[in-house]
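Tutorial, part two.
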Amino acid sequence: MDLDAFVAVRTGQWTRLEELTRRRRLDGAEADELVRLYQAVATDLSTVRSAAPDAATVAHLSDVLGRARSAIAGAHEPAWGDVTRFVVLSLPAALYRIRWWTVTVTAACLLVGVVAGFWVATDPDALAAMGTPSERRSYAEDAFAQYYDPSAGFAAMVWTNNAWIAAQCVGLGISGVWPLYVLASNAVMVGATGGMMADEGRLDIFLSLIAPHGLLELTAVFVAGAAGLRLFWTWVDPGRRPRARALAEEGRALFTVAIGLVGVLAVSGLIEGFITGSSLPWGVKITVGAAALAAFWVYTIVLGRRAVAAGHTGDLDPDRAGHVLPVAG
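Running the prediction step on this input gives:
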């Protein structure tokens, strides 16, 4: 089949279908025409795919048909199939693709936290900046433990606050500054608090109360920071893709991460709200936290590797993301 001749003959119908899908209101005759053109263009797409599979033409017709389908059937309503696809394919693929960014961010934040904690615990001036001796003693002996008051309200507060921070890291990641600020300030704050607790002889209390939920919670923050920095790097180095296209594709895929982290932080919030401050033995609390973290990484590595191998990135389907021109290489 001569693709150029076929396109030249059919372009009028394709353009007319695009025109009808852009209209907010259609009369009876136009609605009938929309359905007829939809069927005709669907046949054209099948013909191109089987006889002359040009990537640009296939992507363009898929985009046109996707918008026409929405115009005919109304807005797309999420179904259980969409939820399953998100959980089993899109989210693990997006997490897997930034796994090394996450590992790097985690290592850097741990280093900063340890340095900050050692500095506060060994430098009198740094320790003095944490408060007066009586304030530090009161915090170490009472306030720190009292913060973790088991309740649904506390769990909800922790969840919403951390989810908002994670969303900001991803949403403002293009700046390259905000994720670094959030990650650095969080690492310094946790490390400095640990250093102050160590000076008061309460390092064991600090670790036993922060580890059960902190293993998963801090990992979620590291993932959000990694996603934001990955988006910034895409802006700096888009590779072979045009910069606007690369940012659009990575932005949609990494927004998938932001949505997924809402669920991850909900789990850590439940642990913090009901396990951390409970009367359960310390070993049980740590086991719960470690199991939650292990489950996250098994989910990311096992399902993520499989999803990426199948061609998923975390981005939207082509008919929802819009058609793009092929790029060499």
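The mean pLDDT is 86. In part three we will examine how such features are distributed along the chain.
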